[in-house]
From TrEMBL:
It comes from Candidatus Nomurabacteria bacterium RIFCSPHIGHO2_01_FULL_40_24b. Forms part of the ribosomal stalk, playing a central role in the interaction of the ribosome with GTP-bound translation factors. It holds the Pfam family Ribosomal_L10. Gene3D superfamilies: 3.30.70.1730, 6.10.250.290. GO terms for cellular component: ribonucleoprotein complex; ribosome. Part of the ribosomal stalk of the 50S ribosomal subunit. The N-terminus interacts with L11 and the large rRNA to form the base of the stalk. The C-terminus forms an elongated spine to which L12 dimers bind in a sequential fashion forming a multimeric L10(L12)X complex. This is Large ribosomal subunit protein uL10. Belongs to the universal ribosomal protein uL10 family. It comes from the Bacteria.
Length: 160
């Protein structure tokens, strides 16, 4: 049994993590083996995402008043993944979930100051990273110019 001072310290840590992050993902990790959890933590850390396992009661206390709406139902063993980037936490948990079927599940989270469902966090997880979006945008802009250059080259070759 945890002492009250230890519980308060854990709540303060959770509170700080939630306040300093752009988004928080609630993860049910029931059935995750130690080796898999180590791999998950490593993958998340490489992407700038923090991961913390918590007791549901302590997490519920830390979440009070942190966002609008109702806290999603937190069932099973709970952890939070959080980062300063709005989508990276959800995206990295989702990517790990795809490669390790049936182990992790996204239960919900906090996004833009509101509690959101697991389905909504999964949708957010599917948004590509900023770098990928930039690359797609540049390709979109560059594509007509490339086609125009190819047409001009074809015209020049046909006149010779």
């Amino acid at each position: 049994m945890l002492q009250k001072s230890k519980k308060e310290e854990m709540i303060k840590e959770l509170d700080k993590a939630i306040k300093e992050s752009a988004s928080v993902v609630f993860v049910n990790f029931h059935g995750l083996k130690v080796g898999e959890e180590t791999a998950l933590r490593r993958d998340l850390r490489d992407q700038g995402v923090s991961y913390k396992v918590s007791r549901k009661t302590l997490l519920a206390r830390a979440l009070k008043g942190k966002a609008e709406g109702e806290i999603p139902e937190l069932k099973g063993e709970i952890a939070i993944a959080y980062s300063k980037d709005q989508t990276s936490g959800a995206r990295e948990v989702y990517n790990f979930q795809k490669t390790h079927k049936g182990i992790l599940s996204i239960l919900g989270g906090i996004f833009e100051g509101k509690f959101v469902s697991g389905e909504r966090m999964t949708e957010i997880a599917m948004i590509p990273s900023r770098e990928v979006l930039y690359a797609q945008f540049v390709n979109l802009i560059n594509s007509p110019i490339q086609r125009f250059a190819v047409v001009l080259d074809a015209i020049a070759k046909s006149k010779n």
